[in-house]
Amino acid sequence: MRAISQGESARLILNVPNKGTLAELDADAVIEAPCLVDAGGARLLPAKPLPDYARGLVVNAKAVERATIDAALTGSRRSAYKAMAMNPLVDSVRVAEALLADYIGHFKELQYLR
Question: How many Cβ atoms from other residues are within 10 Å of residue 84's Cβ?
């Protein structure tokens, strides 16, 4: 806020539209990236290409996020299941099914999923 309001500049890590920064993701994907912030707003700083080991993780994380968002917006249980099954912390589709069923059973806020 200070950088914007007082004309100072600051380097900050922000959540911003990708706009081609990471070639592996769509331009509209939101990424966490270094930016220069000043009175003119926030501008993405150039980034090096992702190392081989990180590409798959980043693409998978974005796919999980998009499936989660789809489930939240549409009430699709299938999208929620897809998000759970793609999560690298869930070791199998069977575990994903069980987790989702348990979450829906325990959290009334998730009972809209159909």
Answer: 22
By C-alpha distance, which of 74, 112, 81 is closest to 90?
Answer: 81
Paired residues of 14 in beta bridges: 33
Residue 52, pLDDT score: 93
Residue 40 pLDDT level (bands cut at 50, 70, 90) = confident
50 φ, ψ to 5°?
Answer: -65, 140
pLDDT tens-place string over residues 67-94: 999 999 999 999 999 999 999 999 999 9
Give the start-to-end residue ranges of the domains of the chain.
2-44, 52-110
Residues 67, 68, 69: CA angle, nearest 5 degrees: 90
DSSP bridge partners of 12: 35
Cα 53 → chain centroid:
18
- And the tokens for 51? 């190392």
Q: Is the dihedral of CA 6, 9, 13, 16 positive or negative?
A: positive
The pLDDT confidence band at residue 6, using thresholds 50, 70 and 90, is: confident
Cβ atoms < 10 Å from Cβ of 92: 9
